[in-house]
Design brief:
The chain is an all-alpha fold and about 350 residues long. The chain has helices at about 5-20, 25, 30-35, 40-65, 70-80, 80-115, 120-135, 135-165, 180-200, 210-235, 245-250, 255-285, 295-305, 310-349. About 80% of the residues lie in helices and about 0% in strands. The longest helix is centred in the last third of the chain and has 37 residues, at about 310-349. This is Membrane protein YkvI.
């Protein structure tokens, strides 16, 4: 395996992480709702979820690589069949579009926290997203290779410093009700749909070794961050419900400068997710719309901006649970796909 293979695989891993670590994850809200609220037992569920996550990414990219798929529609047809692919094609379109609205609204909400105009935040992220698409696909991956290490380092540093000041004996929390393992599977399902759109357009441009590096690398990195972040949230379980952003509960006794750093991290998380979502939309329609990639991206950005008037919190509360349930089926089909192919192989023998 060459150094260039490892580097390209790492760039794709950053793209996977950038697509996953959106405003919900970086703020700690997703991790708390899906894992931390169930108590200390949730750490095992985090590991199971991340293993399923890596396997799903590997299957998606291998299918895309074999089919030389230009976008996610062909990959969907291969995994779930033609009829269901049509339905999920529409679902993915609305998922990417609506969650991009959430990210743009989140950018506006972040600037409101600093007493700036909501619309300044919305327009600002729109301009920065469009700028990336002036450099085509390489621009998207270059962006993630620059910003994601910063985002990861910030989260790891914050959680590492916090955990260094506390011991396991300080956790005072009852075990949550419900099945944490099923909640962990739902977490994977929620995050897999945008990755189908993004990775389906990448698989045809990489080889098998690069796919393996990206899936293993992103899985290990996300598992490490999630375990440390979730462990930190367990320490502040009594205060989490007092904060819209659980990360602020972890940093409540940190110096004020950390709040500035956290705001930057949250905005970067919002930004990278918005870029990945627009990339998925552009990849889907580039064969039907004979326009430069940046122009198609600009069209989607203009479509998204007025929809942000619905508000950040309301959009998350309504859309995320809905998509989590709808995605369970496609997650199951992705994980069962290798077994299906194996059965077909033996039938031909």
């Amino acid at each position: 395996m060459t150094l260039s293979t490892v580097w390209k695989g790492a760039k794709i891993a950053f793209l996977i992480i950038g697509t996953t670590i959106g405003a919900g994850y970086a703020s700690g809200r997703e991790l708390w709702e899906f894992f931390g609220s169930y108590g200390p037992q949730s750490q095992k569920a985090v590991l199971v979820s991340m293993i399923l996550f890596s396997l799903s990414c590997y299957v998606i990219m291998m299918v895309s690589h074999r089919l030389k798929a230009p976008h996610y529609r062909l990959v969907l047809e291969e995994i779930i069949g033609l009829r269901l692919a049509k339905a999920y094609d529409v679902l993915i379109f609305f998922y990417l579009l609506s969650t991009t609205v959430v990210m743009f609204a989140g950018s506006g909400a972040t600037l409101v926290y600093w007493e700036l105009s909501y619309w300044v935040g919305v327009v600002l992220i729109g301009i920065f997203v469009l700028f990336v698409f002036l450099r085509d696909v390489e621009g998207v991956m270059s962006l993630n290779s620059l910003l994601i290490p910063v985002l990861i380092a910030m989260l790891l540093l914050a959680c590492g410093l916090f955990l260094g000041q506390n011991s396991m004996a300080d956790i005072e929390m009852e075990e949550g009700q419900g099945n944490v393992l099923s909640s962990g599977i739902a977490f994977t399902a929620l995050n897999i749909l945008p990755l189908i759109a993004v990775l389906s357009a990448i698989g045809s441009k990489v080889n098998k070794e690069e796919i393996a590096v990206s899936c293993v690398g992103s899985g290990i990195c996300l598992a490490l961050i999630s375990l440390l972040y979730n462990q930190s949230l367990l320490f502040v379980s009594q205060e989490v419900m007092l904060y819209d952003v659980p990360l602020f509960a972890i940093l409540q006794n940190f110096p004020p400068e950390w709040m500035v750093g956290v705001s930057v991290v949250l905005w970067l998380a919002i930004y990278t997710t918005a870029v990945s979502n627009i990339f998925g939309l552009v990849s889907r329609f580039k064969d039907q719309v004979y326009m430069p990639q940046w122009a198609v991206a600009g069209g989607f950005i203009l479509l998204v901006m007025p929809l942000t008037t619905f508000g950040f919190t309301k959009l998350i509360q309504f859309l995320y649970p809905l998509y989590g349930v709808l995605n369970l089926f496609i997650l199951a089909m992705i994980l069962l796909y290798p077994l299906k192919q194996l059965a077909l192989y033996y039938d031909k023998q």
